[in-house]
Amino acid sequence: MTLISTIIDLEALYGEPLEASILKETDRVVPVYRALIEASPFATLATRGAEGLDCSPRGDGPGFVRVADEKTLLLPDRRGNNRLDSLRNILHDPQVALLFLIPGVGETLRVNGRAVISTDPALLDSFAVDGKAPRTVVVVTVETVYFQCSRAVVRSDLWNPDKHVARKSLPSAGQILAAVSENRVGGEAYDAGLQERVRTTLY
After folding, report:
1. Which of 17, 129, 148, 150 has the fewest CB atoms within 10 Å of its CB?
2. Model pLDDT for residues 139-179, shown as the tens digit of each residue
3. What is the pTM of this model?
4. What sequence ranges are listed for the domain Pyridoxamine 5'-phosphate oxidase N-terminal (predicted)?
5. What does CATH list as the number for 17-156?
């Protein structure tokens, strides 16, 4: 196997970045980037902790990540599985990265920054849905923002409904759990109640 082991070799192989790829990076949420964040119902949150890396899916209605100002994003931590991987990592290392996706749009938006975890009552209440507030809000101080061109989405044909995968063609959540836990959890009973559990525990 031939490996790249130095920055010099890497840059020699790929060449100089295009001017646009450099100029598109900002150190704040400018209005055109704010429009993308406010249209996005889904993002991934990347963190780093003592036990390694984590990349967690986050989603809600469009604009669920609130732009408080040009240097601050607010991300409610909605109900989940209580593993707390992202939050544990933030306490260890505040550096975070967000990748925003917008259904039907090829471009994505990347944000890098530093995060803290807030339990401010007024802030939590401002994110309440159906009277249910998140337990915490991740407050991200923005360091860099830039959009990613559409090539990855175009190559993957991600938003093409004709390419959607039938859920039943893949192992179910219950089957996956049963397989990896040696049948301690999961199975048909887990699958039977899954949709209702998700519906009633969204917030």
Report:
1. 17
2. 999 999 999 999 999 999 999 999 999 999 999 999 999 99
3. 0.94
4. 32-149
5. 2.30.110.10
